[in-house]
Amino acid sequence: MGKSIEAAVLRQSGKPYVIERVILDAPQEHEALVRIEACGICHMDIDGPSLCSLPAVFGHEGVGIVEAIGAKASVNVGDRVILGYGSCNRCPSCMQGHPFYCDKSWEVTFGGRRLDGSPTIRDNSDSPLHAAFFQQSSFATHAIVPDHCLVAMPADVPAEVGASITCGVMTGAGAILNVLDVKAGETVLIVGAGAVGLGAIMTARKAGAGAILVADVRDGRLEMARELGATATFNPRMGAMHEWVMAQTSRGVGKLLETSGNAAAFEDAIASLRTGGHMAYAILPSPMEEYTLKPMPLFEKAARFEALSFGNSVPHDLYPKMLEWWQAGEFPVDRLISTFSFSDINQAMEHTRTGDVIKAVLLMEATDAE
């Protein structure tokens, strides 16, 4: 039997979300019903309409309390959890402990349904909505989530902190630890000081990087970057970034994370590499922007070029680590957060779209719906 909940439904691209009463399906045997405490907003939520059909329920950075479970679920009622990204838990990559390379990644992220094709949310006319976004759709008071995607969260961690690390910040942290493998004393260039970039800066500082160079077109973000660990910053509106990098390093950088989602910055980043350099890139916050990739500059530098998938991170490993750092005062992700009431979701989305806030987090109101 389904449960009546509240969800923010987007019925037409460019129009506001409307909080509606909808019916959430009962959990299947390896699923859990989670009451959402908070949910972060990511640029993938903003770009969701270009990737998914409408009407839809987005949201993929949820935290909450398990209220019900399927017959074979590996979590318990009452568990406090972070909702990780979706994966099939069956393909060779998943079985080898690499869910970020899941063969069904696109389907479980943007397919709008469970992998068996069944919907998780219906509106009051009994029409299925495009949901199961990242296998959660957590712009709602409750969500259905596969049990293997749930990660335990300590009771003393504020909900907004847990919700802030789940996607963008994790991607930045994972890029530094898992992809670029930044070591103590090394130099890293981070292009873009949004949630991904700032997560990378904090992690690079934690890793002991010798120089953390950061570029962004917003001076306020550069100030935040310096406060979080950047050793030198540059606004590309003042000139060519690669020339600044060469002045800083004399030969270019060996490790580079490009997060701006800007085609011009992308090309300038490649020019900032030294011979044998390693560039990782995340296309947020503009995943639909067209890029022109010219292989010759990479070839000339014998450069390694790598796309990120969730920072090549396993949530069960990295979420607890980031929260431990935060509790120790070594990963001040709370400085990125701006909280909004769930009813103010349209305001929160607009502030995210314009860059007025770094990490908007929705706080859910209690509901007595059954």
The CATH class designation of the largest domain is Alpha Beta
Which architecture of the largest domain per CATH? Alpha-Beta Complex
How far apart are the first and last residues' alpha carbons, in Å? 10 Å
Counted up, domains total: 2
Which H/E pattern describes the elements? EEEHHEEHHEEEHEHEHEHEHEHEHEHE
Going by CATH, what is the homologous superfamily of the largest domain?
A: Medium-chain alcohol dehydrogenases, catalytic domain
Query: What global shape is seen?
Result: globular
Q: pLDDT below 50 for ≥5 consecutive residues: which ranges?
A: none
| Separate helix tally | 12
Q: What do these coordinates show?
A:
The chain has 370 residues and is of the alpha/beta class. The protein folds into 2 domains: 3-153 and 333-363, Quinone Oxidoreductase, Chain A, domain 1, CATH 3.90.180.10; 167-312, NAD(P)-binding Rossmann-like Domain (Rossmann fold, 3-Layer(aba) Sandwich), CATH 3.40.50.720. It is 29% helix and 24% strand. It contains 12 helices and 16 strands. It has helices at residues 43-46, 48-51, 92-95, 105-110, 159-179, 195-207, 219-228, 241-249, 263-271, 295-300, 315-327, 345-354, and strands spanning 3-9, 18-24, 31-40, 62-69, 80-83, 121-122, 142-146, 150-152, 187-191, 211-215, 232-234, 253-258, 273-281, 304-307, 337-341, 359-363. Helix 9 links the parallel strand 12 (253-258) and strand 13. The longest helix has 21 residues, at 159-179. The relative contact order is 0.16.
Structural features:
370 residues; alpha/beta; Quinone Oxidoreductase, Chain A, domain 1; 2 domains; 7-stranded mixed beta sheet
